[in-house]
Each structure stands twice: as C-alpha cells, then as structure tokens.
Design brief:
- The protein is of the alpha+beta class.
- It has one domain (4-119).
- Helix content is 59%, strand content 19%.
- α1 (4-32) packs antiparallel against α2 and α1 crosses α3.
- The longest helix has 29 residues, at 4-32.
- The two termini are 20 Å apart.
- The relative contact order is 0.16.
C-alpha cells in the first residue's frame, strides 16, 4: 500500500511532466511567432522550464530512493491511465483529463504569479 506521501509524489510527477511538455511546445511556438514582447515571454518560459527541471530532478531522486516508477499507459480523450510501481506494489490510476489540465494550470500559475516553490517538501 502506498503512503499518502508516495501518492502525492506520483501525482506531482504526473503534473510536472505534463507542464514541462506543454511549455516546451509553447516555447517552440513562441520562438516562431513575432510578438512585441517576445524576448520577455521567451525568458519567462525558459526560466519556468529551468525551475520545473530542477523540481523534476528532485522528484526523480526521491522516486529512485523510494523505489518508485510511473508510466503513462494510455489516454482515451477523457481519462489518462498511469501505471505505477512502488516498493513491490503495483497499481493503476485513471485520472480525468480535465482535472489534470486544471492541476497543471494551477501548478504553472504559481510560477507566473511568482509564488514560492514547494521544493523543500520533496527534499528528503
């Protein structure tokens, strides 16, 4: 059985993976789009990606230390299915895509509104 902390780490890993992928796509598009403040937007996205990468490195280290692994299995348009392994336990989570999108939006908003990171919660 997973602890609440392990469940939270797996859930957070899913969210930041989606956020990073979305921002990488957006950065590619921003680089090709002429905007009046293009440099500002590019810098904001690059700095955010840098912070997400640091956070992801901490989470991956935590997951390795606690023998955790997660993989996206499928997405049917409404739900995304993730398989996880942790300390010999296996399981599957189906998450509503609209819920995931809202969680990713909330996560990214803390960067764009300059909220403090919660990295210290995962450093252990």
């Amino acid at each position: 059985m997973l602890t609440k902390e392990e469940q939270a780490v797996l859930r957070h890993y899913i969210i930041i993976s989606i956020a990073r992928k979305a921002l990488e796509k957006d950065l590619f598009l921003l680089e090709k789009t002429p905007l009046k403040l293009q440099g500002t937007y590019l810098e904001l996205v690059r700095k955010t990606l840098e912070q997400i990468s640091k956070e992801m490195a901490l989470i991956k280290r935590y997951m390795k230390l606690h023998q955790m692994k997660i993989e996206k299995q499928e997405s049917d348009g409404f739900f995304s299915t993730y398989a996880y392994w942790c300390r010999g336990y296996e399981g599957v989570n189906r998450i509503l895509n609209t819920h995931l999108k809202q969680q990713v939006t909330n996560y990214l908003m803390r960067f764009f509104t300059f909220e403090k990171s919660r990295l210290s919660q995962l450093d252990g």
